[in-house]
Amino acid sequence: MEQLLYVALTADVDPDANRAQPGRVDAVSAGTAEGVSLVACFEGLGILADELEARRLPATFFWEARTLEALAKHDARLFSRLRRAPSLEHGSHGYRHEDFAGKVSRMPLGLEETRAVIARAGAAHARLFGAAPCGFRAPYCRLTPALAVALQESGCLYDASVTRRPGPEWALRPYRLPGAPALYELALCRSTDGAGRPISAYLWQLFEGKRPVADYVRLIASLRGRCAGGLLQVALHPWHLVVSADGRPLRSPGAAAPHGLLSGFLDEASKLGGVQFTTCGTYLRREVNEPRP
Q1: CATH code of the region 5-288
Q2: In the 8-state DSSP scheme, what is residue 104?
Q3: Nearest of 287, 207, 203, 254 to residue 6 by alpha carbon
Q4: Is the model's pTM score more than 0.85?
Q5: CA–CA separation, 122 vs 131, rounded Å?
Q6: Where are the domains of the chain?
Q7: Alpha helices in 85-186 (DSSP H)
Q8: What are the start-end ranges of the E strands in 74-209?
Q9: For residue 223, how far is the Cα from the chain centroid?
Q10: pLDDT-derived band of residue 289, with 50, 70 and 90 as boundaries?
């Protein structure tokens, strides 16, 4: 029986073109003096919801809780649509896109501070979705030892922050994290393209016109045989369907627009044999026989 490569489309739902700043734990949007913008995020969420519904594709959303609360307040219809969608899984992405490691802020969060953020984000998630998040992706994909401990203590099933290259030691399979043995890691993939150039499974280069759809389809196809049974996460930010990483509007027409490129990618990836779209949690529970909460 042919073993499938599983693909999870994942969305980091957070403020527009956000970036860490020295001297503050939270993120701000490019082009704003102090705060954040959510205009492109909400517009991109609507586009993404349309694309997924049109193809009946599952996906995993990692929500920054501040953004989640703002969506529920300011666009209740879109929030309800996403909350009720049976094929969507909802995880956590911190409360205010915290720089937990302090790489840019120079204000790393200790264990108690980290616990407080995870608890606050989890409470907002539970209030709005009716259940605690089962998965987490760290802002900037910077997982810290304190984060791993806090996530395990919160009852989270998996983290999806670490980036690795597939090879003999890792074939896109889940593994337990040192220091938090009850927490699984679903690592992101970094590989090379046909020209030997590094390629990650984040789609930002696609939306900014720096890579074609074919590069990402070839990445999936190249992993089918050598990583069969594994999970490839293809990641994006909803705001990137509207603005660039520096906050500029992305205005290319038709199929060259970010939503057209996403549509083309989903169409081509869905046609690949030996590939099945899933959510992170569904895949992990199948792999490790964890009960559904």
Answers
A1: 3.20.20.370
A2: T
A3: 287
A4: yes
A5: 9
A6: 5-288
A7: 111-129, 145-154
A8: 88-92, 135-136, 158-159, 163-164, 175-177, 180-185, 188-192, 198-200
A9: 20
A10: confident
CB count in 10 Å sphere of residue 133: 26
**Beta partners for residue 167, in sequence order:** 170
Give the closest residue to 281 by CA, choosing from 155, 201, 186, 216: 186
Greatest alpha-carbon pair distance for the chain in Å reads 57
Tell me which amino acid residue 4 is. Answer: L
Give the integer Cα–Cα distance in Å for 239 and 15.
7
Place 1 in a pLDDT band, splitting at 50, 70 and 90.
very low
Is the Cβ–Cβ distance between 54 and 60 less than 8 Å? no
Long-range pairs of 69-76 with CB within 8 A, sequence gap ≥ 24: 69/124, 69/128, 70/38, 71/38, 71/42, 71/45, 72/128, 74/38, 74/42, 75/42
Q: In what order do the strands lie in the sheet with 188-192?
A: 163-164, 188-192, 198-200
Q: What count of residues does the chain have?
A: 293
